[in-house]
Amino acid sequence: MTSFLRLTTDMAEPNTVAVPSNDNLGVDLDVKPSKATPRLSFTKVPATPPATPPNDGNIPEAPGKASSQGILLESTTRLEEKTDHGAAIASTDDTAIQSNPAPLDTPPSSTTPIQDETKNEAVPASNDDHEIESKSEPQGVLPVLTTQVEEKSNDAAVPDPTDGYQDTEKTSPTTTAIPQVAHSINPATRLKHKLQHTTDLIVCPGVYDGLSARIAEAVGFETLYMTGAGSTASMLGMADLGIASRNDMVRNADMIANLDPHNVELIADMDTGYGGPVTITQTVNQYIRANVAAFHIEDQVLTKRCGHLSGKKVVTNDVYLSRIRAARAAIDHAQADIQLIARTDANQQLGYDECMLRLKAARDCGADVGLLEGFKSKEEAARAVKELAPWPLLLNIVENGHSPLITVDEAREMGFRIMIFSFAGLAPAYMAMKAAYEKLRHEGITGIQGSGVGPKVLFDVCGLQDAVEVDANAGGEDYKGLT
């Protein structure tokens, strides 16, 4: 059956256009000249339907449902266009469109998309059992469509696009589902989820380059810490005296964070932010783009030094809080989940009470986690957790540094939420390499023969098999037969 809709509008010049469509519908445009307010209307042009078999009474007929006579779509449609002079034309008419009969044992085919020229977006017509309600607007106002869709319930997990979490359990008035976070989402969102929805202590080994990060992941760590001291020593061969630039730190963090961003989160040192609020804003944005999950920013002067060296100096509390506010504003503007860790090094110079004052103020400015660098005793560490609870605190452990050694079990019992071991990779690497180099220097051998550690072992840690698999899956032969 072929049907036509007559589209009539008052315009400056008469014109009639018949436009066929994929579902045997035609549109007959009848444009009449008029000086009145332009209006748009639909009228149905009757067409003689082909002969159809009579309904034997076994198939019920209902408006808007498939029947032996075809498919009837009923809706109330409001269309608005603009003339060349910007005048809005609008009309509300009830139209009924009847298409060719569809076989009862096959689903109806999709109808032709309707083009809304005011937005240049194709709006696909639906043939599901949906109820579509078009919200009327005053003439001359752009349309705002509201759609009500009734569908069958689906018990499958539905991801929430607002926070990246996924609920895997149905909720009821007496139970609350614990959101489960997927490994494919942003690392910052995963770390945020761990802090907000678990009580686990997140233990992070210190890494400083690609190899140390790969080794840490290979032994099972999911969250890593990029140490500024280790990065400066590894990249520049220099002491941690504020020598590493923002570009140095961003480049290293970017490389480490993206080795395996689907499974590993990176917490990175941001030192002082490398400048004032404007510079800090740029630095935070660069860390966000680098896929960093969290960073800590501190209150030392720009010519800073390692937190476990003597003679540290800190800026005033006002300057410190300006750094925190700038970082928080940058995160909020980017709508990112990267976690802001407020660090204070004031304990050495100004004492514990000043540290508490600064951390509480930083918390009020929007910091997600606190870090008091350089505890003088285990009792002081436990006291800080209690005074700042339930705000999460990070504990930095530097063996042979200025703070007492606190074990993972002790930190967990105190209530710390994150624990980083900054020198966990750097110090053992130094000791192992120094011993091998000394043996080579004095004995002419390295001592690694017979250890089983050869090129293949190291390359496997660095993703050799992943590279081979990617090449093979793409049909490449670059690494075929590689052993």
Name the descriptors:
alpha/beta; 8-stranded parallel barrel; 4-stranded mixed sheet; 29% helix
Give the distance, in angstroms, between the N- and C-terminal Cα atoms. Answer: 68 Å
Shape: globular
Q: What's the Cα radius of gyration? A: 34 Å
Helix content: 25-40%
Poorly predicted ranges (pLDDT <50, ≥5 residues)?
A: 1-50, 52-178
Counted beta strands: 19
| Main pleated-sheet profile | 8 strands, parallel, barrel
Strand content: 15-25%
Structural class: alpha/beta
Strand order of the largest sheet: 12-13-14-15-16-17-18-19
Could you report the average pLDDT, rounded to the nearest whole number?
A: 75
What is the tally of helical segments? 13
Quick overview:
The protein is an alpha/beta fold. 29% of the residues lie in helices and 22% in strands. The strands form 5 sheets. Strands 12-13-14-15-16-17-18-19 form an 8-stranded parallel β-barrel, surrounded by 7 helices. It has a 4-stranded mixed sheet with strand order 2-3-1-4, with no helix packed on it.
